[in-house]
Amino acid sequence: MFRSPPSRSCAPLLLAAVLLLAACQKEVEIPAPDPEPTPTADNARGDNMALGNPSGAIANVVAANNYLIVHPQFTAGYDNSRGQARWVSWHLSAAWKGSAERCDCFEPDPLLPASFYAVSTFAYSGTGFDRGHLCPSDDRDASDADNAATFLLTNIAPQAPDMNQDTWFQLEAFARDLVADGYEIYTMAGGYGNGGTNAQGVLTTHLAGGAIAVPARYWKVLVIIPDDSNDLERITTEGARVIAVDMPNSASATAQPWYAYRTTVDAVEQSTGLDLLNALPTAVQEALEEEEDAGVVW
């Protein structure tokens, strides 16, 4: 709205007020920008979900079967109808490694909404299934707090003991050996389907009266790059190695070494309905997902 200028009689008063206000103001020195930060253990740990959100999970109770859980140590897309995560995503580098002891402190996840079914460790008692880690305990031993986070039950799913302690473990150990050799790894893992075989050889579809689904198979995708900075920029068709694995949740998994279960990321996506590596440029994503790894594994 247009306003007429102040009258001559008001002008001196207005000028005096402006001068008084200016006199009362303190001179503020604008600080110079900080120099580029020195790399620390925290920023060397990377972003656990740097490669994307495979299911579009959100942290809202309306998405009970696709609920986003973000811990400093891992990120998960949780499915309340199955009592476990559809996927867990984490970054592994030397910054995550240390000498903290395994805590064996299985606990419900405090980030789960109160309306969700809270899995307890006792739900596994006497079932013949291991409380299987998705993000491994040994991938998070830089501190006691890091290790304890892997025992939150949103990171746990029922695994056939032989598969968990042999074939699945050998794949986990292979990844840690790569880190010791100077690599870093972005990993996603989960289970799908219904019906795994327990220690007694019994095919089982659910635990805890139906609250916890027993997956028929477990999958894992590893994106491996030399340890450095600007990770996403360095994940290219020539600069990254991608290993996708899909194995049965039964003792039969031990009939072959883990690398015999290598497949493509595309095949895992078709089986799970997830969109993996979706934070990468489309052309890079498509190229990496269609190739089955045939690299050296020892």
Roughly how many Å is the radius of gyration?
26 Å
Averaged pLDDT, please? 88
Give me the CATH fold name: Extracellular Endonuclease, Chain A
Mind describing the biggest β-sheet? 7 strands, antiparallel
CATH class: Alpha Beta
Q: What are the low-pLDDT stretches, counting only 5+ consecutive residues below 50?
A: 1-42
Beta content: 15-25%
Shape: globular
Describe this structure in words.
This protein has 298 residues and is of the alpha+beta class. It has a single domain, classed as Extracellular Endonuclease, Chain A (3-Layer(aba) Sandwich), CATH 3.40.570. The chain contains seven helices and 13 strands. The strands form four sheets. Strands 1-2-3-6-11-12-13 form a seven-stranded antiparallel beta sheet. A hairpin with a 5-residue loop joins strand 7 and strand 8.
Which key features would you list for this structure?
Extracellular Endonuclease, Chain A, 7-stranded antiparallel sheet, about 300 residues, two-stranded antiparallel sheet, alpha+beta
Q: Gist?
A:
With 298 residues, this protein is an alpha+beta fold. It has 7 helices and 13 strands.
